[in-house]
Amino acid sequence: MEDRKLLLVTCTNPHEKGWLELRAALWPHCSRGEHLEEMARFCAEPDRFAQFLARTPEDHAVGLVEVALRLDYVNGTKASPAAFLEGIYVRPEARRRGIARFLLVHAEKCASARGCREFASDAAITNSASHAMHKALGFEETERVVFFRKALSRQ
Fold it and tell me: DSSP assignment, residue 93?
C-alpha cells in the first residue's frame, strides 16, 4: 500500500469510524469508557491535541496517530512547545507498507504549524519493536528512564 492510496482523516469527534477500535488494539488494558472519555477530551481541545486515521480507499481504518502539544518539560527535548507522539498504531496485517510514516508526516506538519520545533515520544524500555519503529521513522534515542514508586502509609 502506498501513501497516495491512503486517505487521511482528522478525528474531530469520538465516534469517528475505526478510531475506538484502533485505540483498543493499541491500549487493550483501557476500558471502552476510558477510551471514549479521553477521545472526547482530545476532541474538545483541538489546539492541544490532534489525532488522525489512515484509511484505505475501501474506507478501512488501518492506522492511527495521536499527538499532544506539550508546554511542560519533555524528556530529551530542548524547546517548548514540543509535539509528543502519544500513540501510533498500524494494524498488524497492514504493517511495513509506509502507513506509520504517512501518519507521522501529517502529525509533523500539524506540530510545525503549531510552533513546535521538536517531536518527542517514548516507549517501554523492553519494547524493542517500538524502538526499531521510532528509529525507522527518524527519531533518535535521547535517554533511558526507569520510573519508581513507593506507597505511603496513611496516618
Answer: G
CATH of 3-136, one of 3.40.630.30, 3.30.43.20, 3.40.50.2000, 3.40.50.300: 3.40.630.30
The helix or strand, by DSSP H or E, that contains position 120, with its residue range, turns out to be strand 119-120
Residues 119, 40: Cα–Cα separation, whole Å:
23
Query: Any idea how long the chain is?
Result: 155
Which pLDDT tens digit goes with each residue over 78-103? 889 999 999 999 999 999 999 999 99
- For residue 76, the model assigns a pLDDT of 85
Q: Name 89's bridge partners.
A: 64
The CA distance from 24 to 89, in Å, is 10
Residues 27 and 87 sit within 8 Å (Cβ to Cβ): yes
Of 104, 115, 99, 5, residue with least CA distance to 51 = 104
User: Cα–Cα distance between 37 and 102 in angstroms, integer?
Assistant: 27
